[in-house]
Amino acid sequence: xxxxxxFHRSSVDPGLTTDLHGKLDYGQYLDLQRLLxxxxxxxxxxxxxxxxxxxxxxxxxxxxxVHELEEALRCLATGELAVAFxxxxxVKHIQAQLLxxxxxxxxxxxxxxxxxxxxxxxxxxxxxxxxxHIEFLLGRKDRRMLAVFQHAPEVQDRLRKALEGPSIYDAxxxxxxxxxxxxxxxxxxxxxxxxxxxxxxxxxxWQMVYENPEQHWDLYELAEKLVDLDEAxxxxxxxxxxxxxxxxxxxxxxxxxTGVNYLKRMVDDRLxxxxxxxxxxxxx
Length: 284
Hints:
The protein has helices spanning about 25-30, 30-35, 50-80, 80-100, 100-105, 110-115, 130-135, 155-165, 170-180, 185-190, 200-210, 215-250, 260-265, 275-280. The chain is an all-alpha fold.
């Protein structure tokens, strides 16, 4: 072997900016000092940090999801379907990120979680205002859930606005009506603070769209984007259920729900029922 020193070619780009005094740097732009100092463990157990970061990152994705769904609502109302397709595709990928990160929390064993579960008190994911906002935007309306946020009036008012406003599917049905398709008046004027219920006339409209995609291509594509979203959300709910069952079994949730039994009722809920029914209705 040679006794000459071995030199490594530097991987540092010669144009790299190193003098950042008085300039905006990466940490400042992302406000990392505040972000990375917001994990406040209430126990000394090693795994509590995992639990906190899992839920904080979920809330960041929820924030982006609300942002995108509100843009999708605007696009559907104005008929900008090409933009709506891009936005809805992005929401599907956000859901994929949320789905995949459950695997990290699933590494938390029951014996590890019980060591710090008591510090949560009544705190629970069911109190996530952003997740409730997403559910209202997707049409899973439930006025009773506003009571959970009565201690936070500004949050409650924001959720009430989402509850009373149109969901993504309401905006889609409005679009069908504007296209001259036979949407029943009672569907257009229904109480939108309640969840949409399957309607035969709406299912028949979607059947026409699916059987004549060349004539209704943008509606056909919109329908598939919505099915993508419904499926992605259902998969996330199922993964949530299984991780909770894996970690706490059949115990009650910290927020007072029945835990796994409550989540099981949510798994089969369909956000856009006629888009699933039409698959059975298609001839051939």
